[in-house]
Amino acid sequence: MVYVSEVHELQENKFTERRSMKIRLIILLLWLISSDIKAAAVDFNQQSINIALTQEPPNLNTARTTDLVSFFVLGHVNEGLVRYDKRGRISAGVAESWQISGNKMIFKLRRNARWSDGSALTAHDFVFAWRLINDPATAAPYASIMYPIKNAEKIQRGELPTTALGVAATSNHQLEITLENACGYCLAAMVHVAFYPLKETFYKAQGELYAAEAENLLSNGPFRLSSWVHGSRLEMVKNDTYWDSDSVHLKQINVAYITEDNRTRLNLFRDNRIALVRLGTETVREAAGHGMRLKTFVSGGMAYLRFNTQSEKFTGHTKIRQAIRLVFDSDEFVNKVIAVPGYKPTYSFFPSWVEGVDNKFVVEYPVPKPEIQISLAAGLVAEVLTQVGLSEAPSLTLLTVTSPTGAKIAEYLQGRLKRTLGFNIKVDQQIFKQYLVKSEAADFDLSLASWYPDFDDIFTYADLLGSYNGNNRGRYQNVEYDKWLRILQTVARPEARMQAAAQLQNIIVQEVPVLPMAETGSAYIQHPKLKGVVRRVLGADPDYRFAQVVK
Fold first, then answer.
1. pTM attached to this predicted model
2. Domain 299-523 of CATH type 3.40.50.2300
């Protein structure tokens, strides 16, 4: 009896298990079907889109962030005094109007500007945020962008308290800024995330957790961050408290995928999983071969090789950097290594889109294409080896991001420098977040880098090599460079400013603290039902603020 009973129970358990398995399979099937629907690249009824990012945003704290991925997210969930319109022109943001006279800037704030928690956004939120960035204890990488504001430099050196900063809330809806001198680019600079507001009570309540999760971030822009699964996905939804929410069409931007692999992103686009894909070196031909309609865009950035210029480094010798410049071929690099439409060879650290006085700066002050001179370069290396008492060059570490494109560029430079100068290059590939950590610590000899403009002025590039700049990761120090940089920063007359920029360009060519490799471009494909996406050199790119899904 016992045996029969046990067999019957076993049969019942098997039947129950099979039935349960069928139920689980049905649930799984339904989930997959719903996931497929939800995973569609665009949804007209929901006005939602799916996109992919190459990396997770490393830091969404506006006082600390420096990277393009974070800027992209922050540019959608926050807004400063001014913003860019569809045509890339500066237009009213939180400030509905402003007056600029001499060294005074007065902004009148909108009374309907609000935070995503429904509270009013006031001029005090800008005062708190800007004092925070200037506080030496914050160690904000972009602190120097505020140098034109009265006392900013002294505050950052610890000579004055943050309350001495030339910014004041004369009322809840009026912000008054006092500058050290008249500033020709300061209005344009206000678009940068460093000038975004912060709500003091919320910021302090979050402490170290501020911006670490979706719930730890407060928004005042067209979207708000509604969820964030680290390393996997994040979601931005329309911010109904935004002052101009009626003009925002998209209700949801899903960063459904985070992957550095260009081919994976292309396949996601082909499978109707994402609405826009940027193409890399290895995918641009593949996409064209499948008859996809490619769009190109000059993104305004500068791809360059950063040198660690500290005296104890082999690359700290100017002649070593000059030698590398003499064997580098920008044309070959762009056409054979990158091979992406939109990229352009360059010999100046200042891109071709930057304005001079009457024409583009590089037209008014051109840098001749350098001649490849391997024997001269080898002679410079030999001089340094004799000087330091070495028989051969030490192994050099090249820092780059873990990505197919980064690996390809590193492999090219590794081979090029070995063949021409006999240098042994060790490639250090890191995930994006760790790459930033190592860059900030100057833990490299050479580093693949890129710089995109923070605002519409040549100063946004020149400032990168200032000795005081937290983003000067190669630790370049040059008194003469700093002198001309200060003139570029403080003088208003265009002719004098461009003459100063020309002096800076000459120093870069001679000293080679960085080696310009290419002006960046972008080849991409966009879903035909997604309209109104703005691609621009300045600000968040791509910008979905004006986008919508059409039938």
1. 0.79
2. no
